[in-house]
Amino acid sequence: MPHLPSINPATGEVVGEVPITPATEVQAAVDRARKAQPAWNDLGLDGRATVLKRAAAILNERAAAHGELITREMGKPLREGLAEARSLGESLAREVDEMVEALEPEVLEDGVGRSTVYHDPLGVVGAITPWNFPMSMPSWMVLPALVAGNSVILKPSEETPLCGQAYADALNEVLPAGVLTVVHGADDQGKALVQSNVDMIAFTGSREVGKHILRESSGTLKRVVLELGGKDPMIVLDDADIEKAATFAAFNSFRNCGQVCVSTERIFVLDSIADEFEAALSGLAAAMTVGNGLDDVDVGPMVNAGQRDHVLAQVDAAVASGAIVLTGGRGHHDNFVTPTVLTGVTEAMEIGHIETFGPVACVTRVSSDDEAVQRANDTHFGLGAVVFGGDEARTSAVARRLTAGMIGVNRGVGGVVGTPWVGARESGFGFHKSKDGHRQFTQTRVLTRSL
Ligand code: NAD
Prior knowledge:
Bound molecules: nicotinamide-adenine-dinucleotide
Number of helices: 17
Shape: globular
Radius of gyration: 23 Å
Largest sheet: 7 strands, mixed
Distance between the termini: 61 Å
CATH topology of the largest domain: Aldehyde Dehydrogenase, Chain A, domain 1
CATH class of the largest domain: Alpha Beta
Strand content: 15-25%
Structural class: alpha/beta
Number of domains: 2
């Protein structure tokens, strides 16, 4: 059987390998998962929750090893890899409790009848995941699907097969056989999973692949939930705390080497504070250390040469069209790209409207709140957006006009526990987390009697 090697983007070394699942065998894996599903469902909501919570101790025990694996497989600095790995075990019990609460049957009466609303499993869920959060993205899809009583086929990214496998291995130590299966490979295996008779595809990845999956799923109208890319804007109003705004911009443009779906990619700054903001952001970017994520660095390598070339080509094209490099730019070696700040970026440039997914912060000066809002919304994407400003009423007014799904005011986009992770426009189709997100892994059924 051919094998898929996993390459460390910092060193080029082979971290390990997994056997590739022939695309022609994906349907057979789905058939096996379908056979295992009824017994898993028969355990009931509380029974399944009890089983899954046992995986927390295993994930906690392995967090240090998993964190290092994340860094070696896709490059992010070790502290980020460890934080991702630790969160899996630490939050598992709370998340499972939230899911159970969302899926308990509800009884409603209107004086004439009594209805019970059930949230039943769909059957077999196919989860297709990206490489940028190679353990938490599988967890976001696998866990709610399993709590709901589905069996799951996980197809992790071909860039991070070892992380996907390690996450599934931890869960499989507590799960009955056949309930969670991993298929390895790239787009062919993903396509085979979409074309199989799974009842749902939960996908996180690029907008283009998301559109392909939606088209391919139309024949059977299987449930599809898509978490896609973004081109997140940040607006900096002229009464903002400039240092705080620049610190956030540096963090959120360069974290995970800019390879985060809600990375800050476009920054709209009011003219009167633009010089000061650009100087602060450039200073922070220039001070960042770049290198192997296992060393004590701020920014690791890009995940692969293809992604690196995409980012550098966007920067070059922007500069050729008049953008100015404030810091960074062309300088790179191997997969390491220097944190870059550009100013004078316009929507006509590719970097002004196509997802970069790399360590580049693009600044555009604007003359009013209206212009900032109009340009921030001038995108097909709509994942996150942030506004930094002083006056509460003004900042809230700007925030409420933004068309993204998640908006942060003087902070990042992530909502508090219990809120959905949701993209608007072409950044998402359905959503995750929250009661409503968990229920997307189920078929809602209403059973009614007369009173
Ligand atoms: P990608 O779309 O290239 O690949 C994602 C997964 O889909 C991989 O497992 C891949 O093998 C598989 N795949 C590729 N082609 C397929 C096809 N035709 N049919 C079925 N499966 C296919 O994305 P990526 O490069 O792995 O990840 C980066 C993207 O993910 C970025 O656009 C980023 O913004 C997005 N992302 C979004 C979120 C979110 O919450 N919205 C979170 C993380 C990443």
